[in-house]
Amino acid sequence: MKYIQNAAGGVLAVTDEHATKYLTVHDDAGNEQPKPGYKFLTEKQAKAANPQLFGLADPQVIFTQAELVARRKYAEDLAAFKAADAAANADAAANADAAANADAAAADTPADK
């Protein structure tokens, strides 16, 4: 496994075969050099530049108790908001239907009877 830094600054782990086949060139003396824009890193350098590559300090892997509580509260608040919004929209639709029915009933009854 080799660690590389690409031109955009991202740190990635690649297999030795991939690094040899796609990311290296040979100079006149036959020495392997990284292609322009790539830089080979040691494991220590890669870990310092991208700890998520090693599963460290990754919010998708580890959540603190406070983060879990905040996520749960957000989900509960969002569910309550959606329920209130759905209820308000249902009331508005019911009121609109009642008004339409009243208008239709008024139109069906002759006013001069």
Q: Describe the global form.
A: elongated
> What is the terminal-to-terminal distance?
94 Å
Low-pLDDT sequence parts: none
Sheet with the most strands: spatial strand order: 2-1-5
Which structural category fits the helices and strands?
alpha+beta
Radius of gyration: 32 Å
Approximately how much beta-strand content do the residues carry? 15-25%
The helix tally amounts to 3
Short description:
This protein is of the alpha+beta class and 113 residues long. 51% of the residues lie in helices and 15% in strands. The chain contains three helices and five strands, in the order E-E-H-E-E-E-H-H.
Question: Can you describe what's shown?
Answer:
With 113 residues, the chain is an alpha+beta fold. The protein has two domains: 1-57, no CATH class; 63-113. Helix content is 51%, strand content 15%. The protein is built from three helices and five strands. Strand 3 (24-26) and strand 4 (32-34) form a beta hairpin. The model has no long low-confidence stretch (mean pLDDT 85).
